[in-house]
Structure formats: structure tokens, C-alpha cells
Amino acid sequence: MNTYNPIYALLLFFVISFLGYLLFRPRKGWFWLIKNNLKSNEKIVIEDVLKHLYHSENSGKEDNVNALTRALKFKDSIIVDVIKKMAINELIQFDGDILKLTNSGRDYALRIVRVHRLWEKYLAEKTGYDKKEWHEMAESKEHELSNEETNLLATQLGNPIYDPHGDPIPTNTGKMADVHGEFLSSLGVNTVGKIVHIEDEPDVIYKQILAENIHIGSQIRVVENNNQRVVFYAEGEEFKLAPIVAANITVAVLEKDEVVEENIVRLSNLKDGEIAHILGISKESRGDNRRRLLDLGFVRGTEICIDLMSPMKDPIAYLVKGTSIALRRDQASKILIKKD
């Protein structure tokens, strides 16, 4: 018995055609989406390997394949396959079992570092995102921007030299400014200096520094340094760090003939009944937040005192030029004053 039915055959033809369209539609078919996604993932792995090797070489460390597989959050097999391709494309080379960047690899790595640091600068200056979020957001964006988009971003930001952490931002030709200073962990007692860089990796140490509310640009004086802790004063507050944490902070030591800022404290340390004058706003306050404080009257020389204190003492209302302005403790910590 012949069971052939032309209607079923036609229906089957349309189903197969539709599935073929879904699979192989130019640029948007499943086949192409999966293929492009694999290429995109491979690009991310390549760029993360390059950036990791760049930072390792700059810090005097050496990495082999095992070190990379431990450091990067990808499957070992994927990293190994990518390393093979990178060697063929002359982005890296082997010195025994040690991986090293070629000139082309270093140039590529610098482009990734440039995007990352420019994007952190953008987040700091142009958005309201908390500094705890900058690094992770920039980690994603560094793989997305083209060279043209990166140069446009740099122009919009005024071609900055340093990112918010004090890291130098490579130019489009790969040149970078120097960071002059010494690790806080190596400074002797009574050394006076200014914080010029806070390393944002590893993340666990960076978050400890953020939790201490330590600011770039703050002048410090070391009062204790041993194998258990580093103690220093900055802007009227005492800070105690483990040496491993202090090693992530770079300080430019002040020479004897340089001006030492005395009696500078944070507005957050002002007590009820005290009167002070504003000396300035910390470099930690950036972009729109900084402009808003200036517009509200927090300018050098202005007299300030506490007008009203909330039950939890956060926020606190301060009297500035006859106006009561409420600030959270974190905001007040970025305004520098001198008590009368």
C-alpha cells in the first residue's frame, strides 16, 4: 500500500527548510551565533593571558602553563589550546617552560590595559558606580572596545595620564608615565609621604584597603612598621594594616624641603560645637560628585560647623554659608578641613 501523502511531504519540506534557516541564517543563525561566540570566548582568553603575562613581567614574576591555569578562570584545556595558537601567531614565546611576551604580544597587552584603565577612569568621573564595581566592570569592557572607540573614549576624558588607582594609562602608541614611590610596607618610622597608587589586584586585598577608607593623594606619616603591622596617620585618622596589604599602596616620599601639611583632618572627624575652615576636597571625590560639593559651597576658606546630627550620626547636616547641607559620612570623609 502506498502511504505517500504530498501534504505531509510538503510540510516536512517546510520544517526542514525552517530549521535550516534557523541554523544557517547569515550572521544570526544558530550555527553562526555559536561559531562567533566561540571566537569571542577565545578572544577573551587570549587577551586575559596577555594581560596576565604583562602584569607578571612588570612585577618581575615568571609564569608557566601551570601558573596560568591556576590564575585564570577558564578550563585548562581551553587555556592550553589558546597558548598553542598564541605561540603560532607569535604573541608569546617559550623560554624553557616559561612563557614570555613577544613585542607583538606586549603591544596587544598594552591595548587591553589601556582600555581597562580608561574605562575605570570613565566610571570614576562620569558615573555614580561605587569604586568596588569599577574593576569588574572594566574587566568586561576591555574585551569589547575597538581601537577607534578606545581613542574616542580617551579624547572624551581629556587623554588622562593616570587611572583612579594611580596606574599610568598607556597612550595609543604604548607610552606610559612613571609612578614614582615606594611601597608603604617598606617605609621607615616617621617617613612622611603622599599616597600615589593603590593596587586593585588581588581583589581580596583591594577590598580591605577600600574598607579602611584610604584615599589616593592623602599625606601620611608612618608611626610603626614591623612584620606584624604598619601603622600610619593620614588626615587626622590612624590606620593599621598588615604588611601584605600595605605592600599594595605606593607612597611618594616627601623631601625635607617639601611642604608638610599639618593639622589636616577629614570633615567626618569634626565634633559638635567645633568650628573649622575648609582646605579642599580629596582627589577621591571625582566628577559630578566633586562638582556638586563645590556648587554647594564646599570651597577653600569657607567656615563650617555641625548644624544637626542624626541619631545614628550618619548623615550629619553641616552649616555652610548659612545653608544646612546633609552629608553621609563617606562624603564628609572626602572634604578636608582645619579646625579653628
Task: Report on this structure.
The protein is globular. 41% of the residues lie in helices and 21% in strands. It has a 6-stranded antiparallel β-sheet. About 3% of the residues have low confidence. α2 packs across α5 and α5 crosses α7. By secondary structure, the protein is of the alpha+beta class. Among the domains are: 72 residues, SH3 type barrels (Roll), CATH 2.30.30; 75 residues, Ferrous iron transport protein A (FeoA) (SH3 type barrels), CATH 2.30.30.
- The H/E string reads HHHHEEHHHEEHEEEHEEEHEEEHE
The average pLDDT score comes to 88
The shape, in one word, is globular
What's the total helix number?
Answer: 11
Under CATH, the topology of the domain at 265-339 is which?
SH3 type barrels
Low-confidence stretches: 30-40
Strand content: 15-25%
Give the C-level CATH assignment of the domain at 265-339.
Mainly Beta
**What's the arrangement of strands in the largest beta sheet?**
3-8-4-5-6-7
**Largest sheet at a glance?**
6 strands, antiparallel
Helix content: 40-55%
CATH architectural grouping of the domain at 265-339:
Roll
Total DSSP E strands:
14
Tell me the quaternary state.
single chain
By CATH, the superfamily of the domain at 265-339 comes out as Ferrous iron transport protein A (FeoA)
First-to-last CA distance: 108 Å
Q: Output the structural class.
A: alpha+beta
Q: Please compute the radius of gyration using only Cα atoms.
A: 27 Å
